[in-house]
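Hi V.,

You were right to ask for the full record rather than a summary. Here it is.
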Amino acid sequence: MENQNNIPVVISVTDPSTNISQLDTHTLYNIKGKDNNGVIDVQRRFKDFVALREILVHKWPGCYIPGLPGRKLFQGTDIKMVNSRQKFLNSFCQKLSTLPHLFYSQEVNEIFLRSKEKDIYKILEQIPKPIATEIIQRYQRHFGSLQGKDIDVVLQKKVEDFVDNVRKNQQSLKLAKKYVKETVQSQEALNKQLDTIMNTSIPEYEKSYTSMYCGQQPLIFNHPDTTPKLNNELKANIIFKRINLDLYLDLVKLELKDCKAFLQMYKTKIEYEEYKKKLEQKGNDLQIEYQNVLAGKQSLINMFKRASVDEIKNSIQQQITSNNNEIDTIKNLNDIILAIIGFLEIDRYQQDKKQQYEIIIQKIQQLEQESIDEQTLYWKFIQDHSRQILQDQISKKQQKELNENQQQEKIEIIQQKIQEEERQEEIQKVVPQENGEYANQQQQEIQVDS
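Predicted structure:
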C-alpha cells in the first residue's frame, strides 16, 4: 500500500495494558488515529514494534528509521518501564507519520496498523528481505527529486562531516543523560521530603500547637473549611511532587535514539561499500582463475567437476558477468543512499532536532510556570488565611476587652446607683430628725412668749 499522504495524519500510542497468563505475560499498547486510509484502532506488543522497525531497515537502507527503546530482560511488564516505553513508542509512530514513504508502505499501513491477525511480529519476520534491484526501483519511485543531483566527493565529505558531528553529539548526550538523570533523582528525593513536610509534619505540628496553646481550635492545615480547598482546589497533594526536568531527560533519551538511528542509517551505506569490495575481490579471483584455465591450469574444484575446459571457461565468464552486474547494482544503490543522506536526511534530521528541542523547552517552561503559579496560589491562600485568623483573634480579643469594659461600666453604674440609693436613705433618715428638733424648738419659743 505505497501511497501518498494528502491529509494530516493523527496517531498516538496510549493506555498500555498488561495481560498475565500462565503461558505468557505481555503488554499491549493501543494505537489510535486516522490517516488517508481511514481510522486506526489496534493493539500491538513491543515485539511487534521491533519487528516492524527491522523490516523497514532492510527495505529502506540509507533512510532514517525512527529509533525504539531498548529491550530489558525481565522488565517488560514493570509499570515504570511500560509507561516509559509508551512515551517512546508514541514518538516512534508520530515520527513515522511524518515520513509518507514509510508510513504508507505495506508493512506499516496495511500490516502493522490495520491487520487483525495476532502475532504481527511473526508476519513481519516472514517478509522476505529485498534484493538490491528491488530497492533501487522503489527509490526511483519515491525519490525522483534526486534525479540529476551530483554524486561527488563534496557530497561524500558533507555526509562524513555530519556523521562525525552526530557521533560527537552522541557522546555529549550520554554525559548529559547521566547528569540530568542524577538531577531528576535528587529532585525526586527533595520533593519526597518536601511533600512529607507540607502534608505530614506541618499539619501534625499545627495540631500539637493548637491543642497546647490555642485549645482545640484548628488553625489552617487541620481546619475543616481550609483542608478541602488545600487538597482539592490548590492541589496540595500534587504540587510538591512535580518533576518537570524528567521531560528534559526524555528529550535527551530521544536525541540519543535519533543519533543511534542516524548512525545506523550511515552504517548501512558502509556495509554496502564493504559488500562491494568483497564483490570486487571475488571478481579479481575469478579473473585469475579464468587466466589459469586459459593457461591450462585447473583448480582442485574444477578438477572434481568433470567438465571440459570450454565448459569451465563459460562458467567462469558467467560468474564474472554476474558479479560485475552485482557490483554495478551495489554501486548504483550506494550512490542513491549517499544522495538520500546528503540531500534529504541531513536536512530533515536538522529540522526535526530544532522542532523537537523547541517543543520540549516550551513544554518545560509552561510546566515550570504552572508550578510557580500553583505554589504562589497555595502560599497566598495560607498567607491570607493566616492573616484572617490573626485578625479574627485580634477582633475576638478586642471584643472580649470591649465586653469586659462594658461589663465593668455596668458594674460601676450599678455600684454608683447603689451608693446613691444608700446616700438617699441616709438623707431620709437625717431630715425627719432635723424636722422634729425644729418643731420642738418652735414649741418652746411659743411657750416663752406666752
